[in-house]
User: Which sequence fits this backbone?
């Protein structure tokens, strides 16, 4: 990173014309100088005055900060006895739970690596991820166990007791409740020395050219993220209570709520899954101050605002943080009309940037409609012309590149993808078309990458296309994002039948639905005689998108 003090940076936009780089306008923070340090130790030593760390919304169970660290000590001791060592991968396949932060912090304290998977995934999807990440232990629930039938991996159930009738075909070694009973006083634990640059997490990011890719983030990457939460917190707001209704297996839920808020001393109320009624009831019951959402849920709140305001007391709610996709100015205005006392704070981040990117932190920043906020602290950005590679200036649209202490180490077992995404100077090519305005605010215009955003979930078209091409009656296929007000976008397929086939859309929809998680399912099919492609054979997806939209 360049020595900022020697550069001539425009204080308004953060842009430096000498190197065509935008610098964060937020006050930078130092990272720990001790190289031999793991993220769990770093968080546990962070000064704050919080009392309650987590609350289970369904049971009301509270976990204080002291109970949290005692639990981490117990679970890490049990993991050590099970032979978990530095560099081992441990996979968590479970809905949100008060146990997930404990497990994550325990695994990382040993220098082992956390990977996560959506519990709604199919057996095939689990098998693909496990073959790539090679975990040595699974944390999951009895509901997921049948999908793991035949797996030789030892399993720890995130439940009070083993449901033997559901788990006969797998190897259950213990439960989280048994681990939490572990006495750690005077216990000698086998633990390797962990360094900031060691891998800590292996979260999977949806790929645009094939299977999902494992994103390797280091302990230092996570330290940058967690320290930013404390750095950006505002003591004048008083004690903050957040709801976690977004999935903890995703960087949003994992980074912000499983570990991030711990450096603030904030309370986090955990919902096992999203349910509008349960979420709003929890806001009222626990006097929640901040609520994270994705755009489709915000839309539902706007549409049902009159009913919601009559039924629930949302007077404690100060702000809504919205990520996953940009909000339209119209939707923001409609929300502010219905809920004038609640700020909407948009943000932007990626798995590859370990949850860093841009954010809104004050009511004044929230007035920048259409923006996703200012660059995160310690972050640099470039706007690059995707055709010429030229670095652009203020108010010019191009691909957003990011550089800073939170940028991933790379993709697991995929040097080609790593080289295509990270350049030799550490710049992360986001694949998003953006610009920064005169005040340094980031605006996301479009995606250069071809991901479909369904209710905030990322759906890779290439994965669905590969499945369609495996059907014996299909000769070619292309999948595009189809715009939808309720869900944001859903997958639509353009399909070329093989000669002599008259297959209809319903069998194809069923064929894909049986092999993917519900959020990846194709919702619409159109049959064509050919798929438009460029001379090198790449699908001209934007032509198909224009065709689909023209028929709305």
Assistant:
């Amino acid at each position: 990173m360049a020595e900022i003090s020697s550069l001539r940076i425009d204080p308004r936009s953060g842009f430096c014309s000498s190197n065509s780089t935008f610098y964060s306008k937020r006050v930078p923070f130092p990272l720990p100088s001790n190289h031999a340090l793991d993220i769990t130790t770093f968080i546990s030593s962070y000064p704050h005055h919080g009392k309650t760390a987590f609350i289970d919304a369904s049971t009301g169970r509270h976990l204080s900060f002291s109970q949290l660290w005692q639990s981490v000590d117990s679970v890490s001791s049990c993991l050590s006895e099970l032979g978990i060592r530095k560099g081992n991968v441990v996979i968590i396949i479970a809905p949100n739970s008060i146990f997930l932060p404990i497990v994550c912090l325990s695994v990382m304290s040993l220098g082992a690596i956390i990977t996560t998977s959506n519990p709604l995934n199919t057996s095939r999807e689990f098998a693909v991820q496990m073959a790539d990440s090679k975990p040595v232990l699974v944390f999951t629930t009895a509901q997921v166990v049948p999908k793991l039938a035949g797996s030789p991996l030892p399993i720890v159930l995130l439940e009070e007791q083993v449901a033997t009738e559901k788990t006969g075909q797998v190897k259950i070694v213990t439960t989280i409740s048994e681990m939490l009973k572990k006495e750690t006083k005077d216990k000698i634990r086998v633990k390797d020395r962990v360094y900031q640059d060691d891998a800590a997490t292996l979260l999977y990011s949806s790929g645009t050219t094939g299977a999902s890719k494992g994103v390797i983030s280091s302990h230092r990457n996570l330290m940058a993220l967690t320290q930013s939460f404390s750095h950006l917190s505002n003591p004048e707001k008083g004690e903050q209570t957040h709801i976690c209704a977004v999935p903890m297996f995703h960087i949003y839920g994992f980074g912000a709520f499983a570990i991030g808020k711990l450096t603030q001393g904030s309370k986090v109320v955990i919902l096992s899954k999203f349910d509008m009624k349960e979420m709003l009831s929890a806001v009222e019951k626990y006097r929640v101050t901040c609520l994270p959402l994705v755009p489709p849920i915000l839309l539902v709140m706007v549409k049902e605002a009159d009913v919601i305001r009559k039924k629930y007391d949302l007077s404690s709610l100060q702000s809504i943080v919205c990520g996953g996709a940009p909000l339209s100015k119209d939707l923001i205005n409609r929300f502010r009309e219905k809920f004038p006392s609640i700020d909407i704070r948009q943000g932007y981040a990626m798995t590859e940037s370990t949850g860093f990117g841009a954010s809104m932190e004050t009511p004044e920043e929230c007035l920048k409609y259409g923006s996703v906020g200012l660059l995160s602290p310690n972050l640099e950005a470039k706007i690059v012309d995707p055709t010429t590679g030229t670095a652009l200036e203020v108010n010019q649209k191009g691909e957003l590149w990011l550089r800073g202490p939170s940028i991933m180490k790379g993709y697991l077992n995929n040097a080609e993808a790593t080289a295509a995404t990270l350049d030799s100077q550490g710049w992360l090519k986001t694949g998003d078309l953006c610009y920064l305005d005169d005040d340094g605010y980031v605006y996301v215009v479009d995606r250069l990458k071809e991901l479909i955003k369904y209710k905030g979930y990322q759906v890779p078209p290439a994965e669905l296309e590969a499945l369609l091409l495996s059907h014996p009656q299909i000769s070619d296929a292309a999948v595009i994002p189809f715009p939808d007000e309720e869900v944001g976008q859903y997958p639509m397929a353009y399909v070329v039948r093989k000669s002599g086939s008259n297959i209809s859309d319903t069998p194809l929809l069923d064929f894909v639905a049986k092999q993917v998680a519900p959020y990846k399912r194709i919702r619409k099919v159109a049959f064509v005689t050919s798929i438009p492609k460029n001379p090198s054979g790449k699908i001209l997806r934007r032509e198909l998108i224009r065709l689909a939209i023209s028929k709305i």
User: Anything to note?
Assistant: The chain has a mean pLDDT of 90.
